[in-house]
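Quick one: structure tokens for this chain, please?
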Amino acid sequence: MNRRQFLASASALTVLPHYVSAEGDSVTLRAEPVTAQVLPEGEGLTEMLGFNGSMPGPEIRAVQGQPISINVENGLDEGTSVHWHGIRLDNHMDGVPILTQDLIDPGDTKTYSFVPPDGGTYWYHSHYISHEQVARGMAGPLIVAEDTPPDVDDDITAILADWRLDQDGRLTDEFTDMHSVAHAGYMGNFARAFLSQATVRIGDRIRLRLINAATNRIFPLELSGATGVVVALDGMPLAEPRPFAGVVLAPAQRADLILDVSGQIHLEMPTRQGPYNLAKITVDGTNNARRAGAIVPLSPHNLPKPSEPTQHLVLTMMGGAMGGRHGGDNIWAFNNVSDLQPEPFGSFERGETAQVTLVNDTSFPHGIHLHGHHFYEVAQDGSLGDLRDTTLVEAGESRDIICVFDNPGRWMLHCHMLSHTVGGMRTWVNVA
């Protein structure tokens, strides 16, 4: 990625359009081909897919506990669907073809209606041939305002992604080449973060919402020009803010930071060639009114507390390049089985607590995402760790998670490296 390293820092920042939603509001997303300025101004344009004429799609702002309806119009020449990532909604609104809905055919519209129970940072994206439609740009931020928001001067969203581009800006379409699918996935040679706001003042206290919308890339992130803490992961508030010392985001993961601005902010990805600048937030003026004090935790979540697990399941990731043989009929497998099967990986009664051991018996990391729920990562000492909807399991490692399966329905469980999903690493659970 170093050829265009200097270009990222010079990149003109796209300010995301947004809807502000209140109770009873209805908004429209139209999936359609778009032309995007992914490379800096003056460089080539990129033919992509997006929503409402933009890539990423517009930032949708909902309100915790208040209903929202989103009309998705399909202006593509192929089917699509939209998944509301991280939202604990009714199963039939989850946006997964086969499991929860039929495809939205070209020219058709589907209305998704739900009440977001949790404030925080979420996102939406295509869930049909998503390894291609998301890579082409079909994703956007979904922000749910808390009942009691934190005291900040600015609330800024940064949605990160990467793309494999030719010199003229054309997006290459090798989304399912076997080498990529069997290794780390379809990776870009250019990356950037799109911001909802590009200017702050020295002295401002800001909330910075980081969303990894890449199809396969894991982003290690560093930040200069501000100091602060991590206050939430995957939309779930931390009980105690955590010092910011770099954040690693697997595809689909999010992190909320609260920062005090001391200068121009650079969001960077460390590489072997040095820092790769993903975005910058410039400074215009000084905030003399802000008297920065301690950063307090966000309002606590209202998820049910886990009880003693009644089931302990093991999900073993198998296959890929340099991986062992398995019984599935695709490149990757869970427990010797590839792709969705008639029977679920696990069946649970509503409200049941279960423990799942995620075993990565492959040569590559995987970000495992459970739809419709959040779960606890279990710490090394056996205590409950962070609440996530997507957990990163490194190659050759294992991780236990504990989940209260309190949301009825058929829920997908898959690797959110979307090349691995299409390569077979997907299953489902049933909650009665």
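The helical segments are 5-9, 130-133, 178-182, 418-422.
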